[in-house]
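Holo model, 3,4-dihydroxyphenylalanine. Inputs:
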Amino acid sequence: MIIMSEKLENSLKHWLESISSIALLPELEKVKSELLGKSGIVTTALREVSKLPIEKRKIFGEKLNNAKSSIEEAIANQISKIKRSMVEDKMNSEAVDITLPSINESFGSVHLLTRAMRQIRDHYHARGFLVLDGPEIETDFFNFDALNIPKHHPARQSHDTFYIDGFDEVLLRTHTSCVQVRTMLKTGIPVRMISIGKTYRNDKLDSTHSPMFHQVEGLVIDRNSLTVGHLKNELKRFISAFFETDDVAIRLRPSYFPFTEPGMEIDCRCNKNGGKLTITKDGADWLELAGAGMVHPDVFKHCGIDGEVYGFAFGFGLERLVTLRAGVADIRNIYDTDIRWLRYFRSCA
Ligand code: DAH
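Output:
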């Protein structure tokens, strides 16, 4: 019989004190089973208490149960203390000094196209233009009809269009000029906006063509007079900013776009020396940069704008400008995932 004698009480006190000095989990488990296991000291004593007469059972029972709770609590505390210190040890031994300089000097870079898009956006933003988006999947109303290119107009043929299977009127937009239409229909006058985005034409991929390419579209509309002079000024400023030079001379060459009257191409003086392009007023060559013009009155009509109104618009291909600026001869190289191109583009920053 080991019921709650003074000897047992002392022994349990002793066990209890020793728990807080145990540092290893298996050792603690061993003590736990010696005390509280099936044939552990406390369990056995409790079993024997039940055989005592009622008064003794009460006194000893209470003492034993208290001792049991204290032991359980002490063991649980010690387990979490050991676990915490294990985590701390691991954190100390695996600590990384994040202030140390990097060994790997090869950082990523922003792609040429992305960099140009950000630059164009910032340029026009600073000039008070809204930068708007439009959907890449369009209807032929926004892509053609509203822009004065009706169903059988020959101009449609030059836009080799991808239609969505099963829908005669739904297509991948062939230019960003649709965003002009969407803007006119949605916002009031005045308008000062650009849109940068993807466009699609059924062209074979070669050194200067891609079935997917990017365009930048600009539109300015006002009730006050706007002239070709304003258009010229806006484009000259842009070329100056994009090629980072004030040495810019441009010319306007008559051209035809159904949505402009008059329509024109914008060229810029340059020198092309063996693929290396320099924009300069004294250049011997001309570089075609953009299509532009004064907004055709019919376009205003299709877009629900009437009364006295003036507007100019322009549009250019992004890949062309980007490849020219970076001295990349083949458009395919800027879509290539070859790491050597990506490294080269970084050096063009
Ligand atoms: N949308 C024309 C194209 O894809 C480019 C263009 C020409 C846009 C004249 C214009 C413009 O806004 O006025 O070739």
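The chain has two domains: 6-93, 115-347. The chain has a mean pLDDT of 91.
Archived with the compound record.
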